[in-house]
C-alpha cells in the first residue's frame, strides 16, 4: 500500500531572521515521517496576514492546487492557517470537497480528532457569518436612509466630508469644473466623447483615481482618461447628488446605476448636484444617441476585425479601416497611413475592406473552421474553493429536498438546481485534479465560435491562429476594383498546435493546407508558457 501524502504549509505575517519558517517546516516534516506520510509539496507565505483571503496568498494557492492529490494538509500550529474563523472554515470546506484532512503538528487537530474540531469550528463560523451579515445589512440600511456615504471613493466631482457616522458628499470644484465643461461641449458644441477624452489627456487633466490620489497627497499611478471612464462620469445619476445602486440583477456600473429612493419614492441626496436635471438629461441623450448597441438592439461592432492582422507590404505598418457608407452601401477601405497625403513615405496602399475581409474570413474558415477550439486553463487553486462552495450548496439543497412534497413544484425546481450544481461540481473536480496548466476543449469548433463573436472577438481568433495579411499597393493604371492577388494571406496555425513538438506541428500544417481538412484536435505536451497566447480559464 502506498503511503499517505501530505502538503506542508507555513505562514509568516512578517519575515524576520528570528521568525524564519525553517524550524516549523522541520517540525512538520518530522511529524509526517513519524506518521509514515510522504511529503509531496511545501508551500510558504511570508509577509501575509492570517486574516487575508485564501486566494490572495501565493503559498495557499499552491496548497489548494495540490489538495486534490494529497491526503493531508499539515501546519505547525492552527494559527499558521488563518487568524480568521471564516477563512479557516473556507479551508476546511475546500479540504472536505477534495477528501483531504487539515491537521497540525502540535496534535491540536490530528487525524483522530479532526472531525470533532471541524464540527465545532463550523458551528462558530456559521454563527459569526450570520451576525456579521446582519450587522452590516442593518448598518447600511440605516445610513442609506439618511443619505450618508456608504464607503469607498466618492464619485468623481465630489469628496467625502463629515464624521464617520454622518459622511456626506461635498463638491470638488476642480473636478466639477471639468464635468460641467465636458457637458457643455457635448451638448452645445458638437463635441464627442472621443474628442473630449483626447483633449483631457493632452491637457494633463488627471482621471478620477489619480485625481483622488493627488487630492489626498498620495503617489500618482500615471493613469489616463479612457472613453468608458469619461462616459461613466457623465452618465451616472450621482451627478445629481443622488445616492446610487445597481439595478437588481445587474453588475454595479454607471450604465446600470439607479437612484436610491426614500420611503416616499424620492431619490436620496448625498450632496449638492453638479449638473441640473435638464443638463444631465441632455448629456445622457447625447451619449445614448451615439452608442451603438445600447437602446437600439444593435450589437457593438468593436474595432475592425483585421486591425494588426492586415499589414502594408511597403512599410510593414498596420492597415487601418476607414469606415464610409453612401446610401446604405458600405464603401469602407483599409488604408496604410504612411502612404497618404504629401507626407506619405511610399505609394498609396488602399484596398476595399468588404472584399478583403470576405477573402480572409473564407480562407480562415476553410482551413480552421472544423478544428476543435481549445483554450488554455491555468490552475490557481480557485477551482478547489469553488468546488467546496458548490458542494455545500448541493448538501443544503439535498437537505431541503427531503422536507418537500416529491410531486410538488418546489421539489422539481430544487431537483433541477441540483442537476446543474452536480454538473458544475464534476467540472470543478476535473479542473482541481490538474496541477499544471493545459489546453482544454472549449466546447465546439472554431467555426461555431466564429459565428458567436463580434468583430473584436473574431480578430482575437485570427490572432490565435497566427493570421497575417500583407497588402500590396495597386498597380498604377489598374482598374479600381478588388484584386485578390494584392493580398497575401498566411497562418501560423493554432496556438495549441504551434506549441507542440515539431513533428506534430508539421502534420498540423499539412492538414491546414488541405482544402477540405478533417477536424483536428491536438493535445500538446507540457511546454514553457512564456510565449504562449493563452486564455486563462476561470469560473464565473
Description:
- This protein is α/β, with parallel strands linked by helices and 540 residues long.
- The chain folds into four domains: 5-127, Resolvase, N-terminal catalytic domain (Rossmann fold); 158-290, Putative Large Serine Recombinase, Chain B, Domain 2 (Hect, E3 ligase catalytic domain fold); 310-374 and 439-513, no CATH class; 380-433.
- The protein is built from 17 helices and 18 strands.
- The chain has a four-stranded parallel sheet with strand order 2-1-3-4, with helices on both faces. It has a three-stranded mixed sheet with strand order 9-17-18.
- The longest helix has 32 residues, at 114-145.
- The radius of gyration is 30 Å and the shape is globular.
- Category by helix and strand content: alpha/beta
What is the gyration radius calculated from CA atoms? Answer: 30 Å
The main sheet comes to:
4 strands, parallel
Residues in helix, %: 40-55%
Question: Could you say which overall geometry the principal axes of the C-alpha atoms support?
Answer: globular
The number of helical elements comes to: 17
What is the number of independent domains? Answer: 4
- Say how many strands there are: 18
User: Biggest sheet: strands side by side, in what order?
Assistant: 2-1-3-4
Write a short abstract of this structure.
With 540 residues, the protein is of the alpha/beta class.
What is the topological layout?
Layout: E1 5-11, H1 22-35, E2 38-45, H2 58-66, E3 72-75, H3 78-81, H4 85-97, E4 101-104, H5 114-145, E5 158-161, E6 168-171, H6 173-188, H7 193-203, H8 208-215, H9 227-235, E7 244-246, E8 257-259, H10 277-290, E9 310-312, E10 320-322, E11 325-326, E12 329-330, E13 333-335, E14 350-352, H11 353-368, E15 372-377, H12 382-401, H13 409-432, E16 438-445, H14 446-452, H15 455-464, E17 467-471, E18 487-491, H16 495-498, H17 502-513
Parallel strand pairs: 1-2, 1-3, 3-4, 9-17
Antiparallel strand pairs: 5-6, 7-8, 10-13, 11-12, 13-14, 15-16, 17-18
Helix pairs in contact: 4-5, 4-12, 6-10, 12-13
Amino acid at each position: 500500500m502506498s503511503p499517505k501524502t501530505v502538503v506542508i504549509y507555513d505562514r509568516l505575517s512578517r519575515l524576520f531572521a528570528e521568525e524564519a519558517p525553517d524550524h516549523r517546516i522541520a517540525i512538520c516534516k518530522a511529524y509526517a515521517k513519524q506518521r509514515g506520510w510522504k511529503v509531496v509539496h511545501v508551500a510558504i507565505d511570508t509577509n501575509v496576514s492570517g486574516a487575508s483571503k485564501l486566494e490572495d496568498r501565493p503559498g495557499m494557492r499552491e496548497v489548494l492546487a495540490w489538495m486534490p492529490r494529497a491526503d493531508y494538509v499539515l501546519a505547525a500550529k492552527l494559527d499558521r492557517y488563518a487568524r480568521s474563523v471564516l477563512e479557516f472554515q473556507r479551508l476546511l470546506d475546500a479540504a472536505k470537497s477534495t477528501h483531504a484532512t487539515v491537521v497540525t503538528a502540535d496534535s491540536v487537530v490530528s487525524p483522530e480528532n479532526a472531525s470533532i474540531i471541524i464540527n465545532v469550528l463550523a458551528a462558530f463560523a456559521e454563527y459569526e457569518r450570520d451576525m456579521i451579515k446582519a450587522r452590516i445589512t442593518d448598518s447600511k440600511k440605516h445610513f442609506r436612509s439618511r443619505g450618508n456615504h456608504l464607503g469607498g471613493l466618492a464619485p468623481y466631482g465630489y469628496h467625502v466630508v463629515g464624521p464617520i457616522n454622518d459622511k456626506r458628499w461635498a463638491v470638488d470644484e476642480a473636478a466639477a469644473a471639468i464635468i460641467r465643461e465636458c457637458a457643455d461641449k457635448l451638448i452645445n458644441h458638437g463635441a464627442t466623447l472621443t474628442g473630449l477624452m483626447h483633449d483631457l489627456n493632452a491637457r494633463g487633466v488627471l482621471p478620477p483615481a489619480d485625481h483622488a490620489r493627488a487630492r489626498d497627497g498620495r503617489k500618482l499611478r500615471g493613469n489616463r482618461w479612457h472613453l468608458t471612464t469619461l462616459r461613466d462620469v457623465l452618465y451616472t445619476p450621482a451627478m445629481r447628488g443622488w445616492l446610487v445602486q445597481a439595478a437588481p440583477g445587474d453588475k454595479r456600473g454607471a450604465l446600470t446605476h439607479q437612484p436610491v429612493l426614500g420611503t416616499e419614492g424620492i431619490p436620496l441626496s448625498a450632496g449638492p448636484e453638479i449638473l441640473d436635471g435638464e443638463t444631465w438629461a441632455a448629456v445622457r441623450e447625447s451619449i445614448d444617441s451615439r452608442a451603438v448597441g445600447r437602446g437600439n438592439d444593435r450589437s457593438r461592432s468593436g474595432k475592425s476585425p483585421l486591425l494588426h492582422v492586415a499589414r502594408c507590404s511597403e512599410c510593414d505598418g498596420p492597415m487601418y479601416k476607414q469606415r464610409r457608407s453612401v446610401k446604405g452601401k458600405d464603401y469602407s477601405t483599409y488604408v496604410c497611413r504612411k502612404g497618404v497625403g504629401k507626407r506619405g513615405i511610399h505609394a498609396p496602399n488602399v484596398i476595399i475592406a468588404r472584399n478583403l475581409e470576405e477573402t480572409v474570413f473564407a480562407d480562415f474558415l476553410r482551413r480552421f473552421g472544423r478544428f476543435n477550439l481549445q483554450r488554455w486553463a491555468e490552475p490557481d487553486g480557485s477551482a478547489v474553493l469553488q468546488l467546496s462552495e458548490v458542494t455545500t450548496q448541493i448538501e443544503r439543497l439535498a437537505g431541503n429536498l427531503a422536507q418537500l412534497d416529491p410531486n410538488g413544484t418546489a421539489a422539481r425546481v430544487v431537483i433541477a438546481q441540483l442537476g446543474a450544481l452536480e454538473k458544475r461540481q464534476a467540472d470543478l473536480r476535473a479542473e482541481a485534479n490538474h496541477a499544471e496548466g493545459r489546453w482544454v476543449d472549449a466546447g465546439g469548433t472554431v467555426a461555431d465560435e466564429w459565428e458567436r463573436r463580434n468583430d473584436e472577438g473574431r480578430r482575437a481568433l485570427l490572432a490565435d491562429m497566427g493570421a497575417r495579411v500583407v497588402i500590396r499597393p495597386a498597380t498604377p493604371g489598374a482598374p479600381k476594383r478588388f484584386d485578390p492577388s494584392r493580398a497575401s494571406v498566411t497562418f501560423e496555425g493554432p496556438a495549441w498546435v504551434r506549441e507542440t513538438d515539431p513533428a506534430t506541428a508539421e502534420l498540423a500544417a499539412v492538414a491546414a493546407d488541405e482544402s477540405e481538412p478533417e477536424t483536428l484536435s491536438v493535445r500538446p505536451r507540457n511546454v514553457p508558457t512564456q510565449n504562449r497566447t493563452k486564455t486563462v480559464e476561470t469560473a464565473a
